[in-house]
Structure formats: structure tokens, C-alpha cells
Amino acid sequence: MTLTYLVYALSTGHVHYKGFGPQELVAIHDYGSGLEWMQSNDEDPSTVYIELGTYLIKDKTAFLFIISTAQIVADGIDETLISGIPAGTQVQWPDGQTDIVADGEIRFSVDLPGTYTFRFTAVPYLDQEVTIEAIPAT
Hints:
Elements: E1 2-9, E2 15-22, H1 23-28, E3 35-39, E4 48-51, E5 56-59, E6 66-67, E7 71-74, E8 80-83, E9 90-92, E10 98-100, E11 105-108, E12 114-121, E13 128-136
Parallel strand pairs: 7-13
Antiparallel strand pairs: 1-2, 1-3, 4-5, 6-8, 8-11, 9-10, 9-12, 12-13
């Protein structure tokens, strides 16, 4: 019998990928440290997570960010505040650095005009991007 399955992190419920295979091979495969598999239907692994304790497949929800402004002046002083970020959320800054948000907000200012994208990841939320435009100072 062929199974559709999700591979997820035992510590968070984050779904890493969806696979297909014969039941006997799925059950004995080594998915890596801290990972486990669960039979599923046709879920998109980017939109679901495994609820810890119940081991139910649940739909992710959108972050409810509050963004003070999506456009700032590229003068190194003007800033945007992104708040309402759940504690433990991973943020990837436009330069590729990643941090874990502890206090529910990040602030951003820059002195070079351009478009800057932040990526947010946390279970049970959909991965989400926020784009800030920095316009030239006049």
C-alpha cells in the first residue's frame, strides 16, 4: 500500500516535507534526529502543522502584524516598527541574518534606498513576508 505522509519536527510540529511511498519503507526510513512521519491526505506542507499533544494536522493561520509604515526615508533615522510578532518567531532580515523575536517587535531603518523584505516563520503561522520600501532622502 502506498502512503502519503508528512515529515515533521517532534519539538515544534513544523512540517518539513510531504512524501509518498510504500508503507513498509515509510515506516522504517530514518528521517533524521528529532523528525517523525505521519500519514496524511493531500495537505500542502507549507500550510499545515502537526499540533503537539494531539498529533492532528492543523491549518496554519496568518500572522497579525502591525506595520507602522511600509515606506521610510532612506536617511538612517526614519524607521518602521513591525509589532504583534509572537514570541519565538524567526525573522530573516533583508541581509540574510536570522534572529528569534522575543519582545514582539522589530524596528528597521536604513540609509540606502531600495526594497527590503523580511521573512517570518513560526508554528502555527503561515510563513510570511513583509516588504518595506526605503525612498531617497530629498
